[in-house]
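Re: the request from the purification team.
They wanted to know what the chain is likely to look like in 3D before they choose a buffer screen. I agreed to run a prediction and write the result into the notebook, where they can find it.
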Amino acid sequence: MADDKPSHRFNLGETYRRRDLHDQYGGNPQSGVSPCGDEPIIFLFTGGTGQQHGYQDDFKKDGTVIYTGEGQEGDMEFVRGNKAIRDHKEDDRELHLFEMEGDGEVRYLGQYEYADFEWVELPDTKGNPRDAIRFELAPVGETITTEMAGEERKDNGTEESVVSSNTEASTDPTDRKIVSIRINKTTDMREHFDATVLSDVSRDTVEPYLEVTFDRDDIRLWGNRASTVGENTVSRGDLILFFYDGEYEAVAEVMGTSILGPSAAEFSRAVWPSYDPDDPGNYVIYLSRVYDATIDLDRFWDEHVLDYSGHPLDGWTDLHNHLDAIVAEYGSIEGFYEEATGALRYDYWDLDEWDIDTDLAHRLERQLQRKGQVILYGPPGTGKTFTADSFARWWTGQQMQAKSPAERISSVTFHPSYSYEDFIEGYTIIVDNDDGATPSESSQTEIDEFTGEQDRESPAARDADSRAGEYGLKDGLFKEFCNEAESAFKRSQPHVPGSEPKYLFLIDEINRGNISKVLGENIKLLEQSKRGDSVRLSHSGEEFTIPPNVYVIGTMNTADQSIALLDAALRRRFASLTVPPKYEVLYNSTSYPFDTKTEALELVRSGSDELDVLQAASVLALEIINSAITETSGLGKGKRIGHTYLLPVEWEANADATGVGRDRALADVWRFDILPLLEEYYFGEFDRLQEDVFGKDDVELFDQQTRDIAEFSVAALREELVDLVTRRQELLTDAET
């Protein structure tokens, strides 16, 4: 909080007519940032329809306000109102913040002063991405936000992505917003409710219009007009009650939201065809769970709770004014949640619906809970990294009252040069001026002030300047991650088991780094029994701890190094899970013209479609080759070839992108991926490669004179693979077992 004293020009919390303010002090009554010509005052206004124009203002619990600068279209610049905010102290002007309440009235929130700013990417009024200025404003004296300490104000930012949202949910399970929606019988709302809340919507239908990705094929969602929602937005973990024809029919939990720009009409037409294209539902809410409602109306609408005689006619009723009464009646918001929900009709987090090996995911979860860290090891192309990424989003995402998964998952790829300084802490180039600017930025500011260019400073120029700096001690990636996790752990509810938010750190290619060098003295802190203990770091001398809510997943390619060669101290502290080739993933693919090995064999024997035969022979040949590799001295199962090389989604995408036929795209996988890998395994042993893998010494896929991989035709590949399957079919059973 600033040391300056407030001017007391306005009464905290009092409502004013905005027109009266401008009549007395001057300024533009249409502008969100309004410097007053008659007095040394700058009026700032928040709320209203600001979000429709890309403005997102956040109110922090420490009283700080993150205020979006002015400018509806295109990149913002430090001109007019934005310049006035930044320079207000130099110009001896005061910043006074008001909240727009409708009907021309505004409520006074308090006096603030400029503290800092940052450039972020936000949508403009047309929904196009642009560089926006977000000011950090510090309170001067008492303000509404400091006075209420987060009780009255809510963070009104919106999520742009289900998995990468900046919306922070509270770790307090009782701090959940509840919104009640009345479904009008005389409009198309019931049709929309049935279509997207009670029924599944394909992600293929919605993803083309959104910057959102989903981990399962079917989703549930609801849409409102942003003008109806206003500032009463929802975020992760909030509850929506759907009321229809005299009773609550469903209760849904919010997973994320998006505000659509120009794509709103097209999106609504695809999802809700009966929506008015001139007034589409541009505020989209993604639902994590949908339940049958079991709400006792007499109790919920009692005069001591909501005091309703009937549901409000609004299409969006925020119950924040009734939360205290709901808690008093039901014991907590969680208590209300339990009584309000019946049968579970949809669960986004149902693992059976995710594109991940369910058994492997459950084993991974169990070992993380037991040891705290796991290594997924296996041959190349078995989906180790994909499994780790998908599991991380699933495991962390279910905690709806914590930050979004994107904020609780971090990853790094180890390599031989990766060091303790990168991972924990070390000396490097850092920003180290009192004002947070690098020396080059400070120098550039002086030049700009001299030339008058400071108001036209571009993000690219700032980025270039920030590459220079001073030499000093800097926290590494894992230390920063653990510090953030520890803060979240301390904020969690100690009396509620499992309430601590899970933080998951992913290390790809963990065996490629020097583990002892990277972890240093901290390796013992990985042990479950040592979580919460601390060690003194060698560079800074600070005490460092790995909190109990940090989990680590490492991936390891056994073609590079056997897991037996890992540092013994590391192996003892990590559980190890093998990820072998999973041929059933290929048989279950809807893109392949067969569902079982028997059907694939029948196609190889008597199929008439050449592409079908090539696909069947490819999958069967991969099993045979892996079986041969397993039996080969010096190779073994760690050198097998993963099933993901033959996933149709991979080579079909190549066919679409390059314009080649699907048969040529599949042949390219063999020519440029699988055969070079075999050539590497049998380096310098050309004859042995042909004999061990293909069972003969004149394979047409190789140039017998140059002893290199040949530039073969699709027909030649098909004939060789069919021949391999026919002659070595006995290896299929061994490969399966």
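For the purification team: Confidence is low (pLDDT under 50) at residues 146-174, 432-468.
Please add any questions underneath this entry.
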